[in-house]
Each structure stands twice: as C-alpha cells, then as structure tokens.
Amino acid sequence: MNNKIIYLLVFFFAIFVGTGLFLAGQSKSSTKVASGNLATLKQENIVIPTAVPTVGSLSLTGEESYSFADNVVVNLSVNSNGENIVGYDVILYYDPTAFEFVTAESTLGDFTIYPKDYGNYLFLTSVKSVGSQTATILGTGTSETAIDNLTFRAKKIGNYNFSLRQSAGNEKTNLVTDQTEVLNPALTDLTIEVTE
Coil, strand or helix: which one is 55? Predict the structure, then answer.
C-alpha cells in the first residue's frame, strides 16, 4: 500500500515537473517570437500623425443674450481663404437639455443644407447646386461670410456653449473646393446667455 502511494506521488511529481518545463519552454519561444516581431517593427517605416493643417475659418456668431421666450439663432460664418467652395460639412455640439434644434437655413442661394440632429450635436452637410456657375469664395481678408442660420428653442435659463468640432465618429468638419480639395478650417465657438 505504501509503495502505491510512493509511486503515485512520484508520478504526480513527474507530471508537475514536466508541465512546468513545458510551460517554461513555451514562455521562452513566445518571448523569442515577440522580440522577433519587435525587431520587424523597428525595420518598418513608422508614420507619426501630425496636426491637420488649417485653411480658412468657421465661426459661430450670434447675440450674446437671448430671452427665454425668443428663439436662439446661431449663425455659421466662413472664410474660405480665397478658395471656391462647392460643399461643406460641419459638426456643432450643443446642450440638448438646454436647447431643442428647430431649423437650419442656408443664406447662400445656390446651396442646399441637410441637417442631421444626433441629440447632442448637429451634423450639417451643404452642397452647391450642380448647375451653378457662380464662384463661391467666402469672406475677404480676415472677414467671414454668413452661410447658415441655425434656430434653437431654449428649454432653460443659464449660460451655454455652442461648439464646433473637427470630428465626431466618422464625420468631419471641412470645406470642399471646386477642385475636390478638402480644407480643414480653424474653428471658433459661441457662448450665449438665456435670460427670463
């Protein structure tokens, strides 16, 4: 009986040692593979992302103070830096607990605007009519041209920020030229107060 126990203990010890050696061997080969991959990565060209260059500007403008009973109108203004614009996409964040989006109207006669309200931000896409032959160069020097009027209904009183963003999900804020060049403008936000 004691011999059986001794044989079982030796057997389990051998399995334990064998498993330990097997795992140690696997760990060393994994380390070799990992360091091999590391060496491969060092040989590849690594592209470091740089800041997106800005061309032109997009700004939110409007009154600094609105009465709670009045609609809040936020204007979108652009300077295209001398480029002829045929379309644009804009991401505008707002506080959905403080405002309800009502409408978006283009002030450019040959552009059609398509707003999409995601609840806490608007994604505005605007395109120029295909038949239009008039160049659309927005702003001169450092001045900007108003292109959209965005109307909101206030839900509560206080100070709030309307904010332009470079991206949200797969969408991006940009201007598109007649040469299909995509411009990334500098962005300016708007802070307003809603009073009684």
Answer: coil
- The C-alpha atoms of residue 41 and residue 118 are separated, in whole angstroms, by 40
Give the closest residue to 66 by CA, choosing from 189, 147, 159.
159
Tokens of 47: 């592209």
Q: How far is residue 107's CA from residue 75's CA, in Å, rounded to a whole number? A: 10
Q: Are 158 and 29 in contact (CB under 8 A)?
A: no
**pLDDT tens per residue, range 16-39:** 666 666 666 665 554 444 444 454
Contact 159, 71 (CB under 8 A): no
In angstroms, what is the C-alpha Rg of the chain? Answer: 31
Three-state DSSP class for residue 109? coil
Nearest by Cα to 85 from 57, 116, 121: 57
Is the predicted pLDDT of residue 141 greater than 80, yes or no? Answer: yes
Distance CA 124, CA 58 (A): 13
Residue 86 near residue 127, CB atoms below 8 Å: yes
State pTM to two decimals: 0.71
CB atoms within 10 A of CB 157: 13
Give the bridge partners for 101, in sequence order.
152
